[in-house]
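Backbone geometry:

***
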Amino acid sequence: MIKQILLILLGVFFLLNGINHFYNSKVIEEYAEKRSLLASRLMVKLSGILLCLGGLSLITGYFLLYGLAALCLFLIIASFTIHKFWALKDRDTIMLESMHFAKNWAIIFELLYIGDSILEI
């Protein structure tokens, strides 16, 4: 029961972030452009879709492995395209982006752990 509640809460987190990609798309697009992301408008929309679908799969339990894969895909792409701290000069920005990079990988490992526990069932 606790695992289901935690999965639902994690799904809500991703779903809300995905919805945020649509409601605040201009702000997120500007941030992506500052990080030299190609086709930032398209990528913000696609990332919003991945986040929403992944979040919904965690909430509902349907297509769970596909949802986990979508979330991992988003996080991997975001880590290497948006949070590339190694290409920055400002010390404060480097620290901020390196923390986001590490956070993304922590979440990826969590999602992989969830996927592994699903495959064991």
Remarks:
- The chain has five helices and no strands.
